[in-house]
């Protein structure tokens, strides 16, 4: 967006006095109007906190008056005399004052305000202006060198934010020294009114403003790339965002900013890539997002889809400490568990575990597994990077059966860190070889896949389109190849978008697994999708060596294209049903070389994945 000359532009009266700094009296007056309106009149927002007053273990007591001394209090010994506010911020690399075992006694006597970073001092000013005496900041209210205290406090993080009167967000600050208040050019914030002059029609009045106001100011801001902040935003009843251009307000009944103090216009909301967090913004088309504990009963699958949307948003964020992957979303897991009435298993759910095992990494983003154990390989939380969850339809057919699944928590919080776990499955299996083909074009198209349980080594792609999604990429060298075992997860007759257009076709989704001969179990390595487009292809590659020559041959222009005589949308013959299609692909058979705990001719192989 470029700065426009003021000449010829008229700003609407409510914006003409917009100040050049977000710490001004003008900005403060607007923020206070939102805060008081919400706390007094918003029914949804005022039912978020628990009915019986609840407080974190420690709070910062700001005292009475602007000159009062700060001190840390233990709420178990000194009950607070009122509500508290919280702070969401990026730690960054800047050194800052922290609560430790060594500083605890001193902080209980007096907290040196002059030594606090700028963001902390600014939020103290905001709290005092709101007339709130108590403040919670993680680095000053959790003992930073005590694993025991951190574990206890992190397990109730959702309650900390849910019971706060307001969450103050340093949305534009990269670290604790960035502060809340910023200078700005008010002309870049204010919508401008232009009256057009046309020779052939009456004059028209237009309001010009940024289309992606919320995305630019809040959703894509540096604070909301931090993993912990997702559950902070989800849990808090109301949030005051101090962004790079203006102050934004977010609660369950209003999303507004200084440019649009009465709420975001419908046009701005409609064109947004993501709507405010309070409106289930990730993929659900702007449906209202209320906490799980406020939701009416959801249809069976809908509740799990809501969780999947949260997971996809969460895995786009970053964590300073990789081990916090499950802890930083545990508050949402607790609320989801209560709403779904289901067992939580390291990011997945028991009742639909067979479906949820089908997550895959996004190949638009880098992905890796941590060197230290974090959770079982079958959980999306075992991978760092963006995740896509299973998108199953009403026509999907689940092949595998979950016989058992268990998680061993590291501590008392069964939604937090994990020490171990397994899932025992039963279903059809086959073996494959996966070989990098050097392609970097399309996601899932970087590997060639061969049925390796036959001496001929026939290649799957001649029968179907195979998309391989590895959780961690293989080395991309010509001589690299890996043997995997596949367990069929589910199939679907669905509409698939291919190069020739929309084709109503059939696909199979399988788990890619690697066997550990020492421990006699499997680990998940990725997903393999087999998509059948019924293009008249037949036959397999004769042997594995032929892939080398095929790479050097020119592409047959008609090989990957539907026949001109067939309409890809309406002219196809009916697709075979699941079991028959497996037989056509010769994937439904007994292979004595596949490691397993048991085999049943009808139900398939029994295996354990860790």
TrEMBL record:
Pfam families linked: HET
Occurrences of domain Heterokaryon incompatibility (ranges): 84-232
UniProt xrefs under InterPro entries: HET
Name of this protein: HET-domain-containing protein
Lineage: Eukaryota, Fungi, Dikarya, Ascomycota, Pezizomycotina
Biased composition (Basic and acidic residues): 550-564
Organism: Trematosphaeria pertusa
Chain spans, region Disordered: 550-572
């Amino acid at each position: 967006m470029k700065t426009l000359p003021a000449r010829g532009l008229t700003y609407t009266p409510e914006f003409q006095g917009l100040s050049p700094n977000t710490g001004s009296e003008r900005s403060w007056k607007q923020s206070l109007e939102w805060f008081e309106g919400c706390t007094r009149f918003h029914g949804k927002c005022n039912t978020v906190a628990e009915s019986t007053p609840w407080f974190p273990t420690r709070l910062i007591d700001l005292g009475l008056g602007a000159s009062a001394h700060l001190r840390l209090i233990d709420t178990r010994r000194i009950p607070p005399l009122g509500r508290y506010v919280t702070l969401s911020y990026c730690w960054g690399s800047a050194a800052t004052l922290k609560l430790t075992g060594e500083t605890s006694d001193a902080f209980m006597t007096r907290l040196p305000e002059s030594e606090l970073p700028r963001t902390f001092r600014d939020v103290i000013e905001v709290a005092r202006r709101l007339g709130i005496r108590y403040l919670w900041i993680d680095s000053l209210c959790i003992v930073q060198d005590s694993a025991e205290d951190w574990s206890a406090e992190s397990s109730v993080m959702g309650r900390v934010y849910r019971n706060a009167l307001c969450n103050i967000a340093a949305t534009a600050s990269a670290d604790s020294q960035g502060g809340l208040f910023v200078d700005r050019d008010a002309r870049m914030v204010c919508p401008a009114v232009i009256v057009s002059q046309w020779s052939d029609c009456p004059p028209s009045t237009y309001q010009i403003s940024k289309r992606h106001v919320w995305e630019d100011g809040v959703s894509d801001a540096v604070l909301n790339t931090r993993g912990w902040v997702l559950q902070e935003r989800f849990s808090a009843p109301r949030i005051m965002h101090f962004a790079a251009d203006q102050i934004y307000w977010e609660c369950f009944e209003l999303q507004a900013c200084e440019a649009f103090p009465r709420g975001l216009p419908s046009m701005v909301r409609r064109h947004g890539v993501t709507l405010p967090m309070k409106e289930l913004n990730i993929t659900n088309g702007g449906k209202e997002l209320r906490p799980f504990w406020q939701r009416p009963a959801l249809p069976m699958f809908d509740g799990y889809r809501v969780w999947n949307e949260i997971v996809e948003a969460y895995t786009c964020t970053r964590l300073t400490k990789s081990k916090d992957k499950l802890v930083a979303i545990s508050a949402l897991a607790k609320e989801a568990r209560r709403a779904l009435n289901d067992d939580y298993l390291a990011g997945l759910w028991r009742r639909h575990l067979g479906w949820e095992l089908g997550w895959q990494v996004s190949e638009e983003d880098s992905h890796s597994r941590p060197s230290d154990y974090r959770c079982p390989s079958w959980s999306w939380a075992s991978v760092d990077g963006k995740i896509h969850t299973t998108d199953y339809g009403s026509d999907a057919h689940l092949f595998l059966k979950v016989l058992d699944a268990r998680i061993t928590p590291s501590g008392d919080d069964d939604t937090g860190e994990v020490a171990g776990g397994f899932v025992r499955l039963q279903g059809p299996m086959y073996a494959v070889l996966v070989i990098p083909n050097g392609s970097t074009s399309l996601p899932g198209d970087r590997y060639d896949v061969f049925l390796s349980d036959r001496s001929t080594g026939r290649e799957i792609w001649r029968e179907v389109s195979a998309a391989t999604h590895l959780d961690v990429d293989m080395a991309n060298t010509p001589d690299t190849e890996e043997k995997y075992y596949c367990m069929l997860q589910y199939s679907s007759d669905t509409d698939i978008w291919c190069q020739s257009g929309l084709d109503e076709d059939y696909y199979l989704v399988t788990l890619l697994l690697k066997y550990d001969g020492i421990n006699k179990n499997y680990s998940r390595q990725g997903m393999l999708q087999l998509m059948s487009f019924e293009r008249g292809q037949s036959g397999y590659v004769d042997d594995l060596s032929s892939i080398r020559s095929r790479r050097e041959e020119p592409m047959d222009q008609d090989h990957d294209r539907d026949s001109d005589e067939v309409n890809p949308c309406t002219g196809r013959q009916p697709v075979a049903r699941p079991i028959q299609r497996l037989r056509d692909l010769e994937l439904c058979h007994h292979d004595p070389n596949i490691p397993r705990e048991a085999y049943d001719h009808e139900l398939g192989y029994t295996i354990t994945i860790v």
